[in-house]
Amino acid sequence: MIYGKTILAIIPARKGSKRLKNKNVKIFCGKPLVYWSLLCAKSSNFIDKIVVSSDDDEVLKFAKLNGFKDLIKRPAKLSKNNTQMIDVVLHTISLFSNFDIVILLQPTSPLRRSVDVDMSIKKMIKSKSKSCVSIIESKINPIFLYKINSKGKLLVNNHNNSYDTNKNLKNNFYRISGDIYISFLDQLKEKKTFFTRNTSTYLMPEIYSSDIDNVNDFSIAELIKKNLPRLYKMTRIDKSDKK
Predict the structure, then answer these.
(1) What angle do CA 178, 75, 63 make, to 5 degrees?
(2) 0.70 exceeded by the pTM?
(3) List of residues 6+ apart from 94 with CB closer than 8 A
(4) Greatest CA span in the chain, whole angstroms?
(5) How many domains does the chain have?
């Protein structure tokens, strides 16, 4: 609880996965991938209840053995490859509706820290926003993005396409990181989305942000997790050099 607001955390962990089979129970740094989001939620200073929504008996059993009691056996209709995450969230809050705020913590972000969760909650409330999503700076300026046609030919965009002219353009573009999604319950029920004109953003430290979708993402995130103290120190040095 924070500022009198009660907070519900939802950890969704579907069994099926096209690109990385059984990724939520795949061993990541010695523990099932889902463990790291459970630990993050449990370490938060503000989260009042943690709910695990899954169609995977292995996930539910693991959560129960680790002391998590609020478990939802997700219906088959909400466990398909094309199931929208917002529908899973809405199903969960229909069963746990007596909270002010909901936060979605997907297992695909094992580098996420509880301090970032808490700071994003604070930012949403203090800014008087109705929702908040985590972002990271994009390394690619959209001016350098192109489409191709059915024959593989480059489709020239309407921007100035001279590399010499644009190579020094500042980025100032961001993308959704996938680490944190927060909303007031009443807004989520009404809008059925975390994204509105009253959505604030929380800039994730890049080193603690991940969105595992395939085996390459998994391997890179695990390597980062195992080397976080050294990598954090290097990041601090890099920042100092820029001053």
Answers:
(1) 60
(2) yes
(3) none
(4) 59
(5) 1
